[in-house]
Specification:
The complex is a heterotrimer. By secondary structure, chain B is α/β, with parallel strands linked by helices. Chain B has eleven helices and six strands. In chain B, 53% of the residues lie in helices and 13% in strands. The radius of gyration of chain C is 26 Å and the shape is extended. In chain C, 29% of the residues are buried. Classes of the chains: A alpha/beta, B alpha/beta, C mainly alpha. Chains in contact: A-B, A-C, B-C.
Chain lengths: 302, 278, 220
């Protein structure tokens, strides 16, 4: 209901043809905002020095909502192949054939981290596949709130697949609150149970290599995804497939193909293109000395 | 199995044994090599030197005890540097597991060397949950987020905090982190409140922060134990980080040797396979 | 109701925090409201830590009662939790062993048990990275060869022994590495990943605020 209200408001704005020419609008605001930006930040309650951020947020929200609308209308939206996600079903199938469990770790961070939410979203999809094939699934978690959310997600997945009887509350288990205690427990599980497939999706820190290397020693096929750039090299070295950065956030949309999710994905891609265009434009303006300083000042205030 | 295949696939336990020896031997037979200073460390040192004496600064202990070998030398060196300049130091942590305790232990070890008194020259605010809320909230009022210090004393009773209300009174922030909290410090505190800051982080996390240094959001960067060793050299206080350089050097060289050996075995095996199967 | 109320709270909280970003905290009602929300967050968050203790106690106690496999280790877990937590919350005025100050039971257990154990676990990374590097850094393709060479040279550069070795060669290799590898290729790639991940997180946050994404409630 809230979504519809906001969406209808934005749609009215779109129908007023303001945002149908976004570049024109952005240019107009840029020109008009120069005297505004020149004001000191002590004027009034409204932070005029942050108007640039407001514009970017407006463009971002409009892009996401517009693409969501198009996705709901049935317009085909292209998504490139993500090998790691294509391999998920195959990897679970492998586990089923071998009669060994699937291990899924939705990151070791709290529920307030966006990566953890992305990980749990993917868990829901993976749980549907394991429910379908009756493959044992184990999900160790580090925080109680993540435990609660993951349990609900897995249960819902099993119910949707008509396998409510196969669902066991102990699929998702709370292991330990401390990073390396959690890692030691999971490593021990890997060496004892030898899961056929390990899926790491979420926020990971120093234990990423400990987990991935132990999984490799146990002979598991491993698919990892994290938005932490510093952990990516370890996953790339030790795992079979790695989802990098925003591919993790795209995974939910990729696996479900729901219009709402796809719209969000395409909207963020649009904004990324705008950023790329701004970078290229900035490089040209600064390199050729064509007023690049003014252009850069606008971004400094963001 | 052929010799080259064996070289290509050495049992990982032999690798672990060699790494263990490579770590232990330099401590038994210490060697010293000159440590050159990277530009990022020099920039950090210069930026801290440029902080006016007697200013109020923050040293943030955002690292877990697991990375104590890399991060503790940085925080120790930072405290030496700030106390040497008679700066007032506020320490805090966004890490519940050990952050406040390490801040307490380290500052109480370093402070007496400079005759610094708790409450007047340094304060430990401790830990509060929710680093985004904490960092954002301190922009308005530090007391609203930390009504008491780590030992439960109301901060209104601490003389140092009389003149500190929010980030406006903080001249510099030295963040030592082994996780992503440094990202939040730079995006919330530096970007929104303009407080100059630098970062000391593990070698794994350092490559990410080069972009922040280049953008000027961090005025300097210490990367891993090498960065800590460089900082110690600049302060003329060689300590644990400099001591650890021998072991780190030998392990790096061992890993390089293993990689080369593995590739030699890989290419030799592949050539042998081609000879067998024309 | 079970779905509508959390979604409404998520929308109002998210919307408030976004809007308050553009208003001065001390001069406006909305700014003051957002400051209060941040304080509430730290308070409520403290209770989630308590939730963790309750959860781990319940899980382990049930395992001990049912004599599940490895139940004796669960007993150690429970004893450890309360051995550290109980003395830490008792007032230090009762005894110098209580509280969290230097010399207390909590401080002793943390300094002489917890810290070495955590540092040891982290130290095993050195062994794991050696075996991972040995196995993964193979010159199978052009890209993996570039990775291998770059990693080798950067590993040499980051230690004094290696740097001394590199300085034997003509040209200032360490400066070249710092300028063109760390502040060139590495910086560009890291920035790209950070921008992409940040946009992904922003998109997901927008979906959460609008109620499209309900994973935090355990709903798909």
């Amino acid at each position: 209901m809230i979504c519809r209200l906001v969406y209808s408001t934005v749609r009215k704005i779109l129908d007023m043809a303001l945002l149908s020419r976004p570049l024109t609008l952005v240019c107009l605001v840029l020109i008009d905002s120069q005297p505004v930006l020149a004001q000191t930040s002590s004027d009034g309650a409204f932070r005029t020095d942050r108007i640039n951020a407001l514009i970017l947020i407006a463009v971002f929200c409009a892009a996401v909502l517009l693409y969501t609308r198009w996705a709901r209308q049935g317009r085909p939206l292209f998504l490139r192949k993500i090998p790691g996600l294509e391999a998920v079903e195959e990897a679970v199938g492998r586990a089923t054939e071998m009669g060994r469990p699937v291990l899924f770790i939705p990151g070791i961070s709290e529920l307030d981290e966006i990566e953890t939410i992305a990980g749990i979203s993917i868990l829901g999809r993976v749980a549907k596949i394991t429910a379908q094939y009756d493959t044992p699934l184990t999900v160790p978690v580090r925080y109680p709130l993540v435990l609660a959310a993951a349990q609900e997600m897995v249960e819902q997945s099993y119910v949707e697949m008509g396998k409510k009887d196969s669902y066991d509350k102990d699929i998702v288990r709370y292991v330990a609150g401390e990073q390396f205690a959690f890692t030691a427990n999971v490593n021990g599980y890997m060496m004892r149970e030898r899961p056929a497939t390990n899926i790491y999706m979420g926020a990971f820190f120093a234990e990423s290599l400990l987990l991935a290397e132990t999984g490799n020693a146990a002979g598991s096929i491993q698919i990892a995804g994290t938005a932490r750039p510093e952990q990516l090299p370890f996953f790339i070295a030790a795992c079979d497939y790695t989802l990098m950065g925003e591919e993790l956030y795209a995974a939910s949309a990729y696996l479900s193909h729901e219009p709402l999710m796809l719209g969000g994905l395409k909207g963020q891609d649009f904004v990324k293109m705008l950023i790329v265009a701004a970078i290229v434009l900035g490089v040209i303006l600064v390199s050729l000395n064509l007023g690049g300083d003014t252009f850069l000042e606008w971004f400094e205030a963001v | 199995m052929s010799f080259w295949k064996t070289i290509e696939d050495i049992d990982r336990r032999w690798v672990y044994l060699m790494v263990g020896l490579a770590v232990i031997i330099p401590f038994i037979f210490p060697t010293e090599f000159p440590i050159s200073i990277t530009p990022e460390t020099q920039m950090l040192y210069d930026a801290v030197e440029a902080v006016p004496d007697s200013s109020t600064v923050m040293v943030v202990f955002d690292y877990y005890p697991s990375t104590i070998a890399e991060c503790q030398p940085m925080s120790v060196a930072a405290l030496h540097h700030f106390f040497r300049k008679d700066c007032k130091v506020i320490t805090l942590s966004n890490i519940p597991l050990g952050g406040p305790s390490m801040a307490e232990t380290v500052t109480r070890r370093i402070a007496p060397l400079y005759d610094k008194e708790y409450g007047v020259d340094f304060v430990n605010l401790g830990y509060k949950y929710g680093y985004v809320a904490v960092l954002s909230g301190m922009g308005t009022s530090i007391e609203s987020i930390f009504p008491t210090d780590n030992s439960g004393t109301p901060i209104s009773k601490l003389p140092l905090m009389d003149s500190v209300r929010n980030y406006d009174q903080i001249a510099f922030i030295f963040e030592v982190a082994d996780n992503a909290t440094a990202d939040y410090w730079v995006s919330i505190v530096n970007a929104q409140y303009g407080v100059p800051m630098c970062c000391g982080t593990t070698a794994v996390g350092a490559p990410k922060y080069y972009s922040f240094v280049q953008a000027g959001q961090f005025v300097g960067l210490l990367g891993g134990m090498k960065g800590a060793a460089e900082y110690e050299i600049l302060l003329s206080k060689p300590a644990n980080a400099v001591l650890g350089m021998g072991a780190q050097s030998l392990v790096h060289l061992l890993i390089i040797a293993m990689v080369i050996l593995g590739n030699v075995g890989f290419f030799a095996s592949r050539r042998n396979k081609r000879k067998v199967t024309p | 109701m079970r779905t509508t109320v959390p979604v409404a709270i998520a929308f109002l909280s998210g919307f408030l925090m976004v809007v308050s970003f553009f208003f001065r905290e001390e001069a406006t009602f909305i700014g003051g409201l957002s400051q209060n929300l941040l304080i509430w967050l730290t308070i409520v968050g403290g209770f989630t830590l308590l939730l963790g203790v309750v959860s781990i106690t319940r899980v382990n106690w049930n395992a001990v009662k049912a004599r599940k496999e490895g139940w004796i280790f669960k007993v150690f877990t429970l004893v450890s939790i309360f051995a550290m937590a109980v003395p830490a919350v008792l007032p230090s005025s009762w005894s110098p062993l209580f509280g969290r100050a230097e010399g207390s039971i909590y401080d002793w257990l943390f300094t002489y048990l917890d810290m070495p154990m955590m540092a040891t676990m982290f130290a095993t990374l050195a062994f794991y990275i050696a075996s991972a590097a040995y196995r993964a850094f193979r010159a199978r393709t052009a890209e993996s060869t570039i990775l291998l060479v770059t990693a080798t040279v950067v590993m040499l550069w980051r230690v004094p022994m290696g740097e001394a070795f590199l300085n034997q060669f003509p040209g200032d290799i360490p400066t070249f590495l710092n300028t063109y590898i760390m502040n060139g290729a590495n910086l560009a790639v890291q920035r790209g990943i950070i921008i992409g991940a940040a946009l992904g997180a922003a998109s997901m946050s927008l979906r959460i605020i609008l109620g499209i994404e309900r994973t935090y409630m355990g709903k798909g």
